[in-house]
Design goal:
This protein has 6 helices and 7 strands, in the order E-H-E-E-H-E-H-E-H-E-H-H-E. By secondary structure, the protein is α/β, with parallel strands linked by helices. It has a single domain, classed as NAD(P)-binding Rossmann-like Domain (Rossmann fold), CATH 3.40.50.720. The protein has a 7-stranded parallel β-sheet with strand order 3-2-1-4-5-6-7, with helices on both faces. Helix 1 packs across helix 6. The structure holds NADP nicotinamide-adenine-dinucleotide phosphate. NADP nicotinamide-adenine-dinucleotide phosphate binds next to helix 1 and helix 3. The site of NADP nicotinamide-adenine-dinucleotide phosphate has 28 residues, from helix 1 and helix 3.
Length: about 230
């Protein structure tokens, strides 16, 4: 099988989470040199065959992100692509919820994406080409009960994607987002034991769409917000 990302250095934020792990496995299979960045400590269990794994990096901090991306570019001779997977979720009604949840969702989902994008841009622009893929959420287009803070932060990720795609149109860097519905994760299965998990999108299927957006075949796609929903 032909590999589509041979030799490309791809940084995945939130790389020690569930989707981050599945994405790393897919990108390694496609020949990429994969770098995982996360605020959690590097997990004790074996990771896919990644080039570098950096734990303890808070992507809410421009200083911490800047240092991490400079180190990656220095050690691997540049950076070709960034996938912003880092994020989090809360279910909370507006009536019973706290304002801190809105701040926390903003920090985890939107601030991390903006900070990591700003940190990677000098490295992508230095190469004159690059790929940026954000993980948004389908829930951002219409928020259900309890989803206000999460959906608002992911709506921000959608607008970031559009604005940055326009900004970089003539600079060789594409910027797109995938919008998953419910990913089939152990956490979701535990939280929704009565749901039909076969209708959800698998992390492997989502990773395949992200890998396509990182590939040369997707060079004409920028500013796209792509629903990846399984059968939800
Ligand atoms: N699961 C779903 O059904 C679903 C649906 C739609 C969209 N998404 C999105 O898909 C992405 C991945 O989901 P997932 O289920 O794989 O989540 P996950 O397992 O919780 O992984 C997310 C990772 O991001 C890390 N992270 C959070 N804030 C960070 C920060 N400030 N700096 C560095 N790392 C940070 C988390 O660390 P901590 O563990 O320390 O927080 C975690 O390791 C998220 O953006 C999520 O919103 C998920």
């Amino acid at each position: 099988m032909t590999q589509t990302l041979t030799g490309r250095t791809v940084v995945v934020t939130g790389g020690f989470g569930f989707l981050g792990g599945a994405l790393a496995a897919k990108l390694v299979k496609e020949g990429a040199r994969v770098v995982l960045v996360d605020r959690s400590a590097v997990p004790a269990q074996a990771l896919p065959d990644v080039a570098l794994a950096l734990g303890g990096v808070d992507l809410g901090s421009p200083e911490s992100a800047g240092a991490a991306f400079s180190r990656i570019a220095g050690e691997l001779g540049g950076i070709d692509a960034l996938v912003n997977v880092a994020g989090g979720f809360v279910w909370e009604t507006v009536e019973a919820g706290s304002i801190e949840s809105w701040d926390r969702m903003y920090s985890m989902n939107l601030r991390t994406a903006v900070v990591a994008s700003q940190a990677v841009l000098p490295h992508l622009l230095a190469k004159g080409a690059g790929r940026l893929v954000n993980v948004g959420a389908l829930a951002a287009s219409k928020a259900a009960t309890g989803m206000g803070a999460y959906a608002a932060s992911k709506a921000g990720v959608a607008r970031l994607t559009e604005a940055l795609a326009e900004e970089l149109k003539d600079k060789g860097v594409t910027v797109n987002a995938v919008l998953p519905s419910i990913i089939d994760t152990p956490t979701n299965r535990a939280d929704m034991p009565d749901a039909d998990a076969t209708r959800w999108v698998s992390a492997a299927a989502l990773a395949a769409v992200i890998a396509f957006l990182l590939s040369d075949d997707a060079s004409a796609v920028t500013g796209a917000l792509i629903p990846v929903c399984g059968r939800v």
